[in-house]
Amino acid sequence: MALPPPDPQGTGAPVNTLHFCCRNQEQDKPLLFSGSANGAVHVWNLRTRRTESVLEGHGGASVLWVQTLNSRDALISQGRDLRVCMWDLAEGRSVVTDSILTESVGFCQCSLLDREGGHWLLAVPGADMAAVRVLDLPSKTPVCTLKPDAKLGMPMCLKLWQPDSGSSPLLWAGYEDGSVSLWNLSERSLLSRLACHAEPVMSLDFDPGKLRGVSGSSEKAINSWTLDGQQSLKLQDSVELVNPGISHLCIREDRRILATAGWDHRIRLLGWKKLKPLAVLQYHTDIVQCVAFSDHDVPNKRLMAAGSKDQRISFWSVYNQI
Questions:
Q1: Please, what's the b/e burial string for 185-199 (b: 16 or more CB within 10 A of its CB; e: otherwise)?
Q2: What is the pLDDT of residues 36-45, one digit of tens each?
Q3: 36 class by beta-carbon count within 10 Å (0-12 exposed, 13-18 middle, 19+ buried)
Q4: What whole-number distance in Å separates Cα of residue 61 and Cα of residue 83?
Q5: What is the DSSP letter of 199?
Q6: Which end of the chain is more exposed for a tag (fewer CB within 10 A), N or C?
Q7: Which residues contact 155 (CB under 8 A, 6 or more apart)?
Q8: How many CB atoms lie within 10 A of CB 117?
Q9: What pLDDT, in 10s, does the model give residues 215-270?
Q10: For residue 292, which of 279, 304, 307, 310 has the smallest C-alpha distance?
Q11: 171 bridge partner residues
């Protein structure tokens, strides 16, 4: 059963993105990173529920996305100043060591994929409104640029994926026309495309174990879809909502719970297996813009966090015993 949100925290600006760094931190302090509309990245100590530090690297421009690079000491952030910044946070430092010009004025978040050996792939929205660029990090070497032949509009959300088969990395992209597409990076080719929504795809997530994904838009529905052996996308289920608008959605690491951030100020929890509604969490007083699950090693310590336009982050303990 969902518990009341403990000790909600304020950031002084709408919260756009959240990222936990808790794994292997049992002897240290588990952290939550939050990116806000005032350009600040807050680093939260989850033991004290207080800020450890505030990072200012985007000149006051809204921070759209944050993620760590395998360690709490290395952070990457994306801002609406058209920059992706790499941070050194080791030994109390808070220094931007490098940056990438994204050339995109939209709200599409980047996506990061660990390639091992100290390398990552970074997908960023391109200067061309319809394109996505993929770069190697830390070299910043261009890998490919993906642009559909059809007029799908701007990419709205991205997710890189490495299949277990050891084949080429793939990229999921949700577009302005409401479609979800799967790209092969090595071949620079579109493998499959599915018309999921009548409105722009605001967020998507993918379960590689079940080869099943989920997406949300400004509509009153959440749609799930599957990828078959021929790499063809097919619509699977649709759940109708009482109120329209999904800002963000996230599948929990154990693949049991799906959380959604709603324009109606609510967080919805659904069972991932059948999209069965489990709970509607009401706390925030404005649009909920992001949700994230913690990566604690111990399941009963796992948290869910939600960030809102009301400038607050709420923490929840939800269904950790199932």
A1: beeeebbbbbebbeb
A2: 999 999 999 9
A3: buried
A4: 10
A5: S
A6: N
A7: 106, 108, 125, 130, 131, 132, 173, 174, 175, 176
A8: 6
A9: 999 999 999 999 998 889 999 999 999 999 999 999 999 999 999 999 999 999 99
A10: 304
A11: 160, 183
Which structure tokens are listed for 309?
């336009």
- Strand boundaries in 130-245, DSSP class E: 132-137, 142-146, 155-161, 170-175, 179-184, 189-195, 201-207, 212-217, 221-227, 233-240
> Which amino acid is residue 217, in one-letter code?
S
The DSSP-derived string for 120-134 is: EEEEEE-SSTT-EEE
Phi/psi of residue 92, nearest 5 degrees: 80, 5
Helix/strand/coil for 10: strand
What is the rounded CA–CA span in Å between residue 67 and residue 31? 12
Whether the CA torsion 256, 280, 31, 69 is positive or negative: it is positive
CA angle 313, 287, 113 (to 5 degrees): 65
Assign residue 117 a region: left if phi > 0, alpha if psi is -120 to 50, beta otherwise?
A: left
Q: Is 299 helix (H, G, I), strand (E, B) or coil?
A: helix
Confidence of residue 271 (pLDDT cuts 50, 70, 90): very high
Place of tokens 């590689």: 208
Place of tokens 């799908």: 152
End-to-end Cα distance, the chain: 10
Structure tokens at 93: 């430092």
Tell me the residue length of the chain.
322
Reported pTM: 0.92
**Most distant CA atoms of the chain, gap in Å:** 52
